[in-house]
Design brief:
Layout: H1 2-10, E1 40-50, E2 61-64, E3 70-72, E4 79-91, E5 94-105, E6 115-118, E7 121-131, E8 134-144, E9 176-187, E10 192-203, E11 209-219, E12 225-236, H2 245-248, E13 251-261, E14 265-274, E15 286-293, E16 296-303, E17 308-319, H3 599-604, H4 617-632, E18 637-641, H5 644-656, E19 664-668, E20 688-691
Parallel strand pairs: 18-19
Antiparallel strand pairs: 1-4, 1-17, 2-3, 2-16, 4-5, 5-6, 5-7, 7-8, 8-9, 9-10, 10-11, 11-12, 12-13, 13-14, 14-17, 15-16, 18-20
């Protein structure tokens, strides 16, 4: 676990740290022999980093070749390797691949190598021959010397290092080429896939060359995830051949997985374990590098293989294929009906043409204009289950007995439109809209002697005299037939009861047509307009008024008696202080005899400096009396006034004395006092306190 933590935190690089270059979504360092299908475009971006936890040089220093100057290097230099790759399937067996690496290395003591730069651009062609379940492919790659020669301390590939000559970290310094053979075998119906490759890379001048190789397995237990375990390496041949050459250069054990996301997107994760992960290295296990630094040649030995590395990538595949397997003119990627028979006309989705979309192809459709959604028979014609020559989708009377004539809707024919079909109609020439009985003859439903077709009142009760259109006679037009009207000479338009006499709904002796108060309570005396008498005008009818001589406009209760809202013994219409606190001694006008309890008097003492919202000094004494009252009594306070600024000052002062804001309601009248009796006792500035 401690080793793994060092890996994640250090983010330092060692020799040959390269991001894997997968040519498809199978394999990490070891790609498969399969090529992209024709027209498929593949793009990926990857990033790799490794950690040794060791010095960048085996000797922990580098030496100037002239003068022998030795410089120590710093530990755990951070470095990274990115890669952007594009692939395209030219044909099913031929794939073009372009890749551009991006490298980064932080500061190394005494050098100018730190920074980010690109590596050698690579262009590849890969041709495959599938003999399922075996796939064999040949690849050819060209590496252009596009990499930066001034950046990087450690060469990223073995062919970047030239024996006893100056080398570079991010480039071979010249064009290089590689040839590769790939082999893939699908095992257990693709449950397991074995991938292998071997190749040879060399610079054009042959100053540096190496063998590239790898093999591994991919396990596909579920569609979403595939697991990988691989071994791969880079083995140069331009160094002195010794027994340890194979182990001293690039050699990795790689484990990882592919997470297959929706829309042909894949997340790639891999971990590389180098040979140095399990052994301690010395100078004999390293590789000599000669570089130029600040116009001096320097020399150092670096470990041939990193201990551990991590690769993370994301790829996506796009389908631009023009392949047309059934030769219907529609590419497979757009063909909703693959495998169409030769010569069949298809639509833009590759499906055989069915113009009316009834499920029967036009070439055998006898009714090619069937409306959309109509059920058809084997020949594409609308179904007609009752065989009446009207298709079911138009037949409003399905199931018509065989042999009966029908109209255009498939229903039995009714020539006179009286609702009785011609086969059952005994009166086939009935006048249009005339009501008929069950055999089609004219009907007189109410038996008043007027046929239903002419009867404007078809439900006249039996025995009632009617006019020529079958309606009851009603001389006074009150809606009550003359035969039952007890008041046959009533005024036209007058409201009447069921017997034709003037209606009096509230039984007050005034007919409803003249009653201005139609809902008067029973037994309540009314005037000639039917409204209750109210001698003292207090809104309580005399019949219910317990105090019939209340002064005009005096507030009263439901019994008509004067109200005493604050219970101080003084009726509200006489009370100059209508909101007196309970159990307070008051005078004949209902105001507290103690002036400190009289909010009207207190309000008159509140004043403000001229043209200001600031209180006069004497006003604070009055407001303190208000505070004392609110602390003593569980009341809320309403403050009314003309000036909103004055009101805000008063509210602020009360809150500063500990009165909660929700106990105070300030209301401004803005321009002038309401013209009302209860506002006469306000002070000159229009301030009033009202307990609630």
């Amino acid at each position: 676990m401690n080793r793994f933590i060092v890996v994640i935190l250090a983010l330092s690089s060692a020799l040959f740290s390269q991001t894997a270059l997968p040519l498809n979504t199978e394999g990490i360092r070891v790609p498969s022999a399969k090529t992209l299908e024709q027209g498929h475009f593949y793009v990926s971006g990857l990033y790799g980093f490794i950690s040794d936890g060791e010095a960048l040089s085996v000797t922990e220093s580098y030496t100037a070749t002239l003068g022998g100057e030795v410089t120590d290097i710093n530990q755990n230099t951070a470095a990274g390797n990115g890669n952007i790759e594009l692939s395209y399937g030219i044909w099913d067996f031929l794939e073009l691949n372009l890749a551009l690496p991006i490298y980064y290395e932080s500061e190394t003591n005494g050098t100018q190598y730190e920074g980010m730069a690109i590596g050698d651009f690579r262009a590849s062609l890969k041709a495959s021959t599938p003999i399922k379940p075996v796939y064999i492919a040949l690849g050819l790659s060209i590496f252009a010397p596009s990499g930066d020669r001034e950046k990087g301390f450690r060469p990223r590939h073995s062919w970047y290092i030239k024996q006893d000559e100056r080398s570079y970290a991010y480039t071979a310094g010249e064009t290089a080429a590689a040839g590769t053979v790939y082999l893939t075998i699908d095992i257990m119906d693709k449950l397991i896939q074995w991938n292998s490759f071997g190749g040879f890379v060399s610079t054009i001048s042959a100053s540096s060359y190496a063998m590239l190789w790898g093999t591994g397995f991919s396990l596909n237990l579920i569609d979403v995830v595939s697991l990988n375990i691989e071994i791969s390496g880079e083995t140069p041949f331009d160094q002195e051949i010794e027994s340890k050459t194979f182990l001293n250069n690039g050699l990795w054990l790689t484990t990882g997985f592919h997470l297959h996301l929706p829309h042909a997107t894949t997340l790639i994760f891999g971990v590389d374990f180098g040979i140095n992960f399990i052994r301690e290295i010395d100078e004999e296990d390293g590789v000599k590098v000669i570089r130029k630094n600040n116009d001096k040649e320097i020399q150092y030995i670096i470990p041939g293989t990193p201990k551990i590395g991590i690769n993370l990538g994301l790829s996506k595949e796009f389908n631009f294929s023009w392949k047309d397997s059934d030769n219907d003119g529609i590419p497979d990627r757009k063909d909703f009906c693959p495998g169409s028979a030769a010569g069949i006309t298809v639509n833009s989705r590759g499906c055989p043409v069915d113009k009316d979309q009834d499920g029967v192809l036009d070439i055998i459709d006898d009714c090619s204009d069937t409306p959309l959604g109509v059920n058809v028979d084997y020949f594409g014609c609308p179904l007609d289950e009752d065989q009446d020559s009207v298709p079911d989708y138009m037949d409003k009377c399905p199931g018509t007995p065989a042999g009966e004539a029908v109209d255009e809707n498939g229903c039995k024919k009714d020539s006179d439109n009286d609702g009785i079909d011609d086969n059952s109609d005994r009166c086939p020439g009935t006048i249009f809209n005339m009501t008929v009985d069950e055999v089609g003859c004219p009907l007189d439903s109410d038996g008043d002697g007027v046929m239903n077709a002419k009867d404007s009142c078809p439900n006249t009760p039996a025995g009632i005299s009617v006019d020529s259109i079958g309606c009851p006679l009603d001389m006074d037009k009150d809606g009550i037939p003359d035969d039952i009207d007890r008041c046959p000479n009533g005024e036209i338009g007058e409201i009447v009861d069921s017997l034709g006499c003037p209606a009096d709904s509230d039984k007050d002796g005034v007919p409803d047509s003249k009653d201005q108060c139609p809902n008067t309570m029973e037994a309540i005396p009314v005037n000639q307009f039917g409204c209750p008498l109210d001698g003292d005008g207090d809104g309580v009818p005399d019949g219910l008024d317990k105090c019939p001589n209340t002064p005009e406009k005096a507030p009263v209760d439901t019994l008509g008696c004067p109200i005493d809202s604050d219970g101080d013994g003084i009726h509200d219409y006489l009370d100059k202080c209508p909101s007196t606190f309970k159990d307070i001694t008051v005078d004949s006008q209902g105001c507290p005899t103690d002036p400190r309890l009289n909010l009207n008097l207190i309000a008159q003492k509140v004043a403000f400096l001229p043209n200001s919202n600031d209180l006069t000094n004497s006003s604070f004494t009055a407001l303190n009396d208000v505070v004392q009252l609110m602390r003593q009594y569980p009341i809320n306070l309403e403050i009314q006034g003309l000036n909103a600024g004055h009101l805000s000052t008063i509210v602020f002062y009360l809150e500063s004395k500990g009165i909660l804001k929700n106990r105070i309601n300030a209301r401004s009248f803005i321009t002038e006092l309401p013209q009302d009796e209860e506002y006469k006792n306000w002070n000159k500035k229009g301030i009033r306190f009202i307990p609630r």
